[in-house]
Amino acid sequence: MLDPDFLLLVAGFWLVAGLAFEGVPCVRQWRHLAADTQSETPDAARRRVYGQRRALFQWLANLEGVLRVVFWLGLGLLAGLFDNLAVGGVVGVLGFVILFAVGDQLLREILPWARWWFIDRACGVSRSGPAEMASDSARRLALNTTIAALAGIWALWPFALLPFSMAWPLSGLLMICGMAALFWARPNLIDPLFHRFSPLECGELRERLEAMMQRCGTRLEDVLVVDSSRRSNLANAYFTGLGRQKRVVLFDTLIAHLSPAELEAVMAHELGHYRCGHLQRFYGSQALLLLGGYLALGALVAVAGVAVSPVVLAVAAYLLLPALGWPLKPWQSARKRRYEYEADDYAATHAERAALVSALERLLANNLNAPTMDRWYAAVFATHPPGDQRLQALRLKA
Ligand SMILES: [Zn+2]
Predict the structure, then answer these.
(1) Would residue 64 show up in a list of annotated catalytic residues for this protein?
(2) 278 CA → ligand 1 middle, Å
(3) In this structure, is residue 291 part of a structural domain?
(4) Rounded to the nearest whole angstrom, what is the distance from the C-alpha of residue 130 to the centroid of ligand 1?
(5) How many domains would you assign to the chain?
(6) Scanning 25, 123, 149, 168, which has the fewest C-beta atoms within 10 Å of its C-beta?
(7) CB 7: neighbour CB atoms within 10 A?
């Protein structure tokens, strides 16, 4: 038998260890960027401040996860909320899930506002005002509460009908299926709530991109342009969706900044992610990991004989698993950086390598990315290789 208090102690120690583990690289990145401020141009100063504050907020995001665990679990608020509501049967359980979702989302709104105020607004990246931020917050709150209510109905019903040993794994499987549905819903239902998407206009650029797709042997449902310039000056592109819904989304800011040849190279990079199966591989392994963590938590609680309602435990798993999973971060970041190199290679073979290099250079400058990163910080957090290494890899293979 494991002592529940001992388990709590180990979990607390683990969370604090995570804060230290992520804190050290963030401090190193801060100092790495501060190294040369003597002969700094105003542009370089802005990039440094942007990079430093982003490093700080990387760590704050981890702290947020830990504080939410402390708030809901450490202070016993989650169990208290459940005890007060669960007497109402199914309606009570649903009320519990909804109240938790509202409360938790309100806590999670602090960081985006702080990020907007101290990073995006302060560094001149954001074009949103307080009204736009508030409207985004309200939409996130409504959306996440709806998702939580649906997830509650979908994944918690086994606890009402089956013994814990059967209900727990079944609820885990149902949650993974729910996540797959969310993966489908994101480009189709959720993203359009926040941004306007329109097909890329006919013309030289569209013809050029279509010719490139044909060379790659890929047919997309459409190439979409998103009105990101309403919110920010940052430029980007991404690939999303699976099967017939797959699409490349170009920021309108990207189209404004890059030449047609550069856009073609960026588009080839995004297609590379699709052709190499990066999305499927990443989200597939993410789902397996989550399921593994969920099953392990259920087994641990059963062995320890912790007296907790399975509904509370399922919500606790949602809070705990991301916060406890910090040792996986370097591995996940390294995978994503490898994907970026693979997509770059793909783009360099199917479009002009020189255009990809110049597109990257422009994007790094426009998005205030410092060309170099602290080694430890890159190892833990960087989902894209540091700019200098990425450009060097492209030039070396030329
Ligand atoms: Zn990429």
Answers:
(1) no
(2) 10
(3) yes
(4) 31
(5) 1
(6) 149
(7) 15
